[in-house]
Amino acid sequence: MSENYDVIVIGAGPAGYVAAIRAAQLGLKTACIDDFVGKDGKPALGGTCLNVGCIPSKALLDSSKQFHNLTHSFAVHGISAANPSIDVNTMVGRKDKIVKQFTGGITLLFKANKVTPYAGYATLKANRAVSVKGLDGTVTELTATNVIIATGSVPIELPFAKFDNKYIVDNAGALDFTSVPKRLGVIGAGVIGLELGSVWKRLGAEVTILEALPDFLAAADQDVAKAAAREFKKQGLDIRLGAKLSKADIKGEEVHLTYTDAKGEQSLVVDKLLVAVGRRAHTRGFLAEGTGVNVDERGRIAVDEHCYTGVEGVWAIGDCVRGPMLAHKGSEEGIAVAELIAGKPGHVNLDTVPWVIYTEPEIAWVGKTEEQLKAEGVPYKTGSFPFAAIGRAVAMNETAGLVKVIAHAETDRLLGVHMVGACVSEMVHEAVVAMEFHGSAEDLARICHAHPTLSEAVHEAALAVDKRAIHKTN
């Protein structure tokens, strides 16, 4: 006899585990199935984000930033240290300890909320039956009134640069180098490529990033993208645009790359190659025949605006559905779906989901870019303000970057806020709140901001929309 649940969640990443906890909080008998195995060979909750994504990458970014500051930035403060060095194994060990702390934390949260975890591979069958093949090979049959699919995403592998986990790696492999590679090649100048490229560049690697697109950070507002590109160039990141990789051959202990750009065929030799050309929905193998769940041309599970698949009691959230592949977007969808199942209102506004790239300087934005608005024919006005004119930024020696505010030309409603600079991953949420409440540039301009703070740049940029910034000549 199979065990029956009110809710079964397939996947324990930031979408799935959050959905499971919220469902349990609402009094629903809940189970969560996940097949991720940690470095210690044991089941590990948290999915890609906590195990090999968001959390470990931020740990390495912080460690590498501290080392870079010691070797490059502290002298201006009068701080010096003789012959600084970094122990990569200690750095990676710290990262692993942080990962274990958070994955273990989810286990405790499951216990506290009475969520039943299953370690294994799930297959959704017709009528919301779920078969779980345990990591030990045993099979358990479950049924549910509602099933939430939260299977996440996996790295896209290039056919001519397949992962061998030694010389050609994905994001997980780039988190576990045992030493600083002398020459690191990165395919893709997106979030993962820039963040992990920055980590190893700060520690001394010669980093070359090949990006197939002709524009840098095409998804970001181009004023912000150009400002970021200037800073990355100063840091020594070699970013080559319009560079399309065609071959990656491992020869001895080197990776020989062939790519084409505007000048024709080029070659590059590196010691390690990180392939970071994007991710695809991880939906293969989870759906048996007869479920009725549809998958689109990109392998994503088809859902409506409420994450409903159209099949009674079956929902899907996170990276395996439409929308940005962001952990926080998946978590909000998980909460919304759990609440909808419990008969409560639940909704996620994809137009106000913030984006962040944790480079140095950080890049963050919410809403539309100027390029998108121009293409859509929406009348707009803009205001921007540089961190170089912000007292707190100067005191911190973090003057790179700017804040750009875009508002509707007629109604003044905020359409987008874009930032590059120190701590903008935290600052962007002021704009998110304002946009959620349908705020205007005038609203931001009339809010008193503490002085001296970095957030004064948001205030001044909002004032600049109507050409009345105080500390800038318009």
Present the secondary structure layout.
Elements: E1 3-10, H1 16-25, E2 30-34, H2 47-52, H3 54-73, H4 88-113, E3 116-124, E4 129-134, E5 139-149, E6 153-155, E7 168-169, H5 171-174, E8 183-187, H6 191-202, E9 206-211, H7 222-235, E10 238-241, E11 244-251, E12 254-261, E13 264-270, E14 272-275, E15 279-281, E16 314-316, H8 327-341, E17 355-357, E18 362-367, H9 370-376, E19 380-386, H10 391-396, E20 402-408, E21 414-421, H11 424-436, H12 441-446, H13 456-464
Parallel strand pairs: 1-2, 1-5, 2-3, 5-16, 7-14, 8-9, 8-14, 9-10
Antiparallel strand pairs: 3-4, 4-5, 6-15, 11-12, 12-13, 17-18, 18-21, 19-20, 20-21
Helix pairs in contact: 1-4, 1-8, 3-4, 3-6
Question: How would you describe the overall organization of this protein?
Answer:
With 474 residues, this protein is of the alpha/beta class. The chain has 3 domains: 3-155 and 280-351, FAD/NAD(P)-binding domain (3-Layer(bba) Sandwich); 168-277, 3-Layer(bba) Sandwich (FAD/NAD(P)-binding domain), CATH 3.50.50; 361-464, FAD/NAD-linked reductase, C-terminal dimerisation domain (Enolase-like, domain 1). The protein is 31% helix and 26% strand. It has helices at 16-25, 47-52, 54-73, 88-113, 171-174, 191-202, 222-235, 327-341, 370-376, 391-396, 424-436, 441-446, 456-464, and strands spanning 3-10, 30-34, 116-124, 129-134, 139-149, 153-155, 168-169, 183-187, 206-211, 238-241, 244-251, 254-261, 264-270, 272-275, 279-281, 314-316, 355-357, 362-367, 380-386, 402-408, 414-421. The strands form 5 sheets. Strands 1-2-3-4-5 form a 5-stranded mixed barrel. A hairpin with a 4-residue loop joins β17 and β18. α1 packs parallel to α4 (88-113), α1 runs parallel beside α8 and α3 (54-73) runs antiparallel to α4 (88-113). The N and C termini lie far apart (73 Å). The relative contact order is 0.12. Belongs to the class-I pyridine nucleotide-disulfide oxidoreductase family. It is found in: Cytoplasm. NAD(+) binds at residues 188-195, 211, 278. Its EC number is 1.8.1.4. One of its GO terms (biological process) is 2-oxoglutarate metabolic process.
